[in-house]
TrEMBL record:
Residues 2-71 form the DNA replication/recombination mediator RecO N-terminal domain. One of its GO terms (cellular component) is bacterial nucleoid. Pfam families: RecO_C, RecO_N. SUPFAM superfamilies: ArfGap/RecO-like zinc finger (SSF57863), Nucleic acid-binding proteins (SSF50249). Belongs to the RecO family. InterPro entries: ARFGAP/RecO, DNA_rep/recomb_RecO_N, NA-bd_OB-fold, RecO, RecO_C. PANTHER family: DNA REPAIR PROTEIN RECO. Gene3D superfamilies: Nucleic acid-binding proteins, Recombination protein O, C-terminal domain. GO terms for biological process: DNA recombination; double-strand break repair. It comes from Microbulbifer rhizosphaerae. Keywords: DNA damage, DNA recombination, DNA repair. Involved in DNA repair and RecF pathway recombination. This is DNA repair protein RecO.
């Protein structure tokens, strides 16, 4: 048996479910939970999102069969806006992770995210920002889709605090030489990049860093996600019309 979280589920045939799981050894993996819709008590008690599980996966094909399932601890009950933040993280993982590739680092940072989200009441979006930005940055690093934040690709040296840098997706951060004018969406101060690199390691995001962190992660996630909108983000906007994660 191995640790797992349920990222997504959908009905399958008359009484079963197809589950998308996150595991450390296989990363994202699909499986059939036979009879799960018929066994309502089993589904209610164990096959829930955000609940740490121990699972057995049977079969040799890409779509496994779910064997015995055990609880690996108490479910982390998310509240209010934190529920949608958790669904957003689940959708990112389903969309971005390849099937069957080990993801020990991603599994660890997902656990850290859930612990952070469980520690907030979810009555406002602000307390969710720091754990979400940390998760996004770590996920991007694990996928090899985030350049070193405090490194200049042009000079091949650390960025300078008083410099300005533009993110180029295939290159990294390159210097911007100009005087005055508004900073473009893809531009960041060297001081912010240094602070973001430190925050990524420490997990502590100063409030002033949250805006550039969100701007950076959205720039990096956009080419990976493509044009298809995130359903969790759209649902969040419908429920909480004045918030924007």
């Amino acid at each position: 048996m191995q640790p797992a979280y349920i990222l997504h589920s959908r009905p399958y045939r008359d009484s079963s479910l197809i589950l998308e799981l996150l595991t450390p050894e296989f990363g994202r993996i699909g499986c059939v939970a036979r009879g799960a819709r018929r066994d309502k008590q089993r589904r209610r008690q164990s096959l829930q999102p955000f609940a740490p599980l121990l699972v057995s996966l049977l079969g040799r094909g890409e779509l496994k069969t779910l064997g015995p399932v055990e609880s690996a601890g108490s479910a982390l009950w998310l509240q209010g806006r934190a529920v949608y933040a958790g669904l957003y993280a689940n959708e990112l993982l389903v969309r971005l992770l390849a099937v069957g590739e080990a993801q020990y680092g991603v599994f660890a940072c997902y656990q850290t995210l859930l612990q952070g989200l469980a520690g907030v009441a979810g009555e406002s979006a602000e307390p969710l920002e720091s754990p979400l930005r940390r998760f996004e940055l770590q996920l991007l690093y694990e996928l090899g889709s985030c350049p070193q934040l405090d490194y200049c690709a042009h000079s091949q040296e650390p960025v300078t605090a008083d410099g300005n840098y533009r993110l180029e997706n295939e290159t990294g951060f390159v210097p911007v030489f100009r005087q005055g004018g508004r900073q473009a969406v893809s531009e960041f101060s060297g001081a912010d990049l240094q602070a973001l690199e430190w925050a990524r390691h420490s997990g502590e995001f100063d409030r002033a860093l949250l805006a550039p962190a969100k701007r950076l992660t959205r720039l990096l996630l956009a080419p990976l996600l493509g044009e298809k909108p995130l359903q969790s983000r759209e649902l969040f906007k419908q429920v909480y019309k004045n918030d924007d994660r």
